[in-house]
């Protein structure tokens, strides 16, 4: 049995989400090897031919657009300004954040065997509480904490403020990961946090710079994560080829410019129009075309993994509910929902194949796309920062399409180029944050209110939306966040 602290951290402290101060407790809770799904799963691997896993990604940024420029959720702004843009969708969005709390109990009561993975940003969770939408959070709590429904639902960790990893300052990667874990525990409890073993990177954006990737994987493992979801076209084999076994778990290898290596399990999110594929439950129908594959000496059902926005776009709002329910009804009629082709959660699948004798060391290996070209140019006995940087510069000169700011599902958008007006202040604020706090000798600083205030502005400035939307209002939001964060750091430390 897992032992967890008896006291929960408060969810809100001085009007801010509780994102720091309980790091020791978080790390003690998440760093365990106990099985999460194995004791309660109602699935047996020998009855199953193929598996699919779907995740719903939910996010609303925090913006300085409340009374007197206060921090509020973009969802609240949508409700308050219904005639701007597509803000009339505020109520449907809010319902989408809640509806899994209705769908799962309904399907279970009908004898179905549903599964879903949930990925909610910290911004969204805070925003729902700020808006007084306790009804949504309570509905999510029901399927997260009630043992009648919890085996059907898996939460995935993420970056607290929806920061894309490749352009997040390296020292802040772990701060986002820990902030989300602590905030999640404050809402759903320590036991719920202990079950969060998979990670969903915002925008499926995997860093391919060797040092960023290494620090990212190292942070994930230090924070108790066992696996992450990666986009098929953001990884390659160690020989630089496209993946051959995209429906099997992979071992993602991260090697830094000092030659150190670290690895973590990756489930491969297949290519395609993500939201549409999830909304129409395409992973289920794709899994029907597959049969068992071999890992080491063990035959295992392959897994089709897919993630899409859980609220965004007409297909998700309108087509998903009926398609979701129809798929589980169909499974009940073909094997009772427990044999043939079934849905699983990611951790459940990995625990079941491990129990069947699969060794993660036998998984096919992969690395971020483009790294093969770097390592071709760096001699194994000359692995150092300068050699790696020289190789990257050579590649950029010989191939204008080569880049090391990562590959994401919005592959046509660079998250770095052309946004220096945001990235530069973002790096400046991060640098100031670490400079001020490294020099601060006042004991457990992360428990202090001033630290939490400075941290939240540092993390908020890294929200992807401030870049994705380009120039205009969103860049102005970023400037306001930067100026307030800088003023706080200068005044308080």
Describe the structure.
- 43% of the residues lie in helices and 15% in strands.
- The chain folds into two domains: 22-366, Glycoside hydrolase/deacetylase (TIM Barrel, Alpha-Beta Barrel), CATH 3.20.20.370; 416-493.
- α7 (170-188) runs parallel beside α9 (210-222), α14 (371-377) crosses α15 (385-398) and α16 (420-438) packs parallel to α19.
- It is globular and about 65 Å long.
- Strands 3, 6, 7, 8, 9, 10, 11, 12, 15, 16 and 17 form an eleven-stranded mixed sheet that branches. Strands 1-2 form a two-stranded antiparallel sheet. The protein has a two-stranded antiparallel ribbon with strand order 4-5.
- It is of the alpha/beta class and 493 residues long.
- The protein is built from 19 helices and 17 strands.
- Keywords: Carbohydrate metabolism, Hydrolase.
Question: Can you describe this structure in just a few lines?
Answer:
With 493 residues, this protein is α/β, with parallel strands linked by helices. The protein has helices spanning 23-30, 74-80, 90-98, 100-109, 122-130, 134-145, 170-188, 190-194, 210-222, 274-279, 282-287, 314-333, 346-355, 371-377, 385-398, 420-438, 449-460, 465-468, 473-492, and strands at residues 12-13, 16-17, 48-58, 62-63, 72-73, 116-120, 153-157, 198-199, 227-231, 235-236, 250-255, 261-269, 293-295, 298-300, 303-309, 340-343, 365-368. It folds into 2 domains: 22-366, TIM Barrel (Alpha-Beta Barrel); 416-493.
